[in-house]
Amino acid sequence: MALANIQDKARVVIIGGGVIGCSVAYHLTKLGWKDVVLLERKELTSGTTWHAAGLIAQLRATANMTRLAKYSQELYGTLEDETGVGLYDMSSFGKIRVEGPDATAFLNHICGGEMDVPVGKIVYAQFLNTRGGIEADVTITRLSELTYLVVTPAATRLADETWMRRHIGDHMVVITDVTAGEAVLAVMGPKSRDLLSAVSPNDFSNAANPFGAAQEIEIGMGIARAHRVSYVGELGWEIYVSTDMAAHVFETLLAAGESNGLKLCGLHMMDGCRIEKGFRHFGHDITCEDHVLEAGLGFAVKTDKPDFIGRDAVLAKRESGLKRRMVQFRLGDPEPLLFHNEPILRDGKIVGHLTSGAYGHHLGAAVGMGYIGCEGETANDILASSYSIDVAGTVVRAQASLRPFYDPSGDRMKS
Ligand SMILES: Cc1cc2nc3c(=O)[nH]c(=O)nc-3n(C[C@H](O)[C@H](O)[C@H](O)COP(=O)(O)OP(=O)(O)OC[C@H]3O[C@@H](n4cnc5c(N)ncnc54)[C@H](O)[C@@H]3O)c2cc1C
Fold first, then answer.
1. Can you give the residue range of the structural domain that contains 59?
2. What is the pTM of this model?
3. Ligand 1: residues whose CB is within 6 Å?
4. Cα of 79 to ligand 1 centre, how many Å?
5. Is 376 within the bounds of a domain?
6. Which tens digit of pLDDT belongs to each residue from 74-119?
7. Nearest to 219 by CA among 255, 181, 249, 250
8. For ligand 1, what atom is nearest to the CA of residue 22?
9. How far is 301 from 37, CA to CA, in rounded Å?
10. Residue where a domain stops, chosen among 83, 99, 122
11. pLDDT digits over 333-346, tens only?
């Protein structure tokens, strides 16, 4: 805050925003003190505090100092849940309405997922080709008995719409691109429920709005749809709001977020988080040349449906076994960065390359994913090898995993 805007009186004024000053402000406000001002001459933690990030030694010279160190470590573990909520703009999503008497049958024909679901349900699905390759990676929300909203990445909106039109056959459906009609504000993080509850009278509990479901809501002076999904691995909602109300809803969230620690985030944040969570990205990790089972997305394909494009290829791959597999990697050294295309070495030999890479701020090292050959191998065989990544000529040891490194059970999204 600029100096001119600072109040000239307060019950408590704390000078210095290092760990001690921030801690005093935190604990006083936790006790209910409202009139607390913290003055920092540069940036928070820009003094000696940043040096201490590596270690909170637990055994100190006195019993009280030891207690304090122990308390600090326990407190840091809870701070993220108390403060975490971010907002980023996903209005660039393609939005395509598919409606008509054959909407369910048509989408069941072109998607691997089951689309005969209750109104309000959101299905994560792929459009497959006859080789089992992934033509599109989308979420589809059933808006009514006869209407679905297909949400596509911005870059593939036209390709995904074209794929649907090419396969419409005799189905009685109308396909309409409504991308420009709605903005999408992604509100993500452990405090997203608190933030939305502050700006909307609707119920965001697990009972009223479970993971994978959408509901119509009032928000500020507007009407929107809250889709409970997440591409960053956290509790959160994508708020679909008509474009005429988008600025108002954004300002409403921003104003309420001031007291909730809301941070505006960008797409690098999204990329880092989704790679930590092992979420695939169309165009990088999955394309029309990548078989849906080898990409690790078999959970989204429902072969008990009688027919859909790619079903035979999925059944055949289940019979023959996987030839390659998507594996996630975390560097053993926290320093080097990954961007994608870096060679993957298995027991010293190059066996593939990273299709995605970013810094994993939660995991404390760069993370990436890529395919490696695995014909005739079990998961244990794959993980028994030693892996490294060639980062611009320097070979760096890496940990491999077939499950997400971050919250593998997905509990955070469903909390
Ligand atoms: C190299 C190094 C390594 C360390 N490693 C560890 C470690 O591993 N583990 C550990 O527990 N501790 C470690 N420490 C000690 C630890 O960093 C300090 O004890 C702790 O950061 C002190 O916090 P503080 O809030 O008192 O001070 P600081 O973090 O220095 O904060 C003081 C703040 O006050 C601001 N300020 C100063 N004057 C004014 C003014 N007039 N008006 C407004 N603002 C002002 C400054 O800009 C600064 O942000 C290390 C220290 C150093 C130097």
1. 3-83
2. 0.80
3. 15-21, 39-42, 46-49, 51-52, 54-56
4. 20
5. yes
6. 888 777 767 789 999 999 999 999 999 999 999 999 999 999 999 9
7. 249
8. 25
9. 55
10. 83
11. 989 999 999 999 99
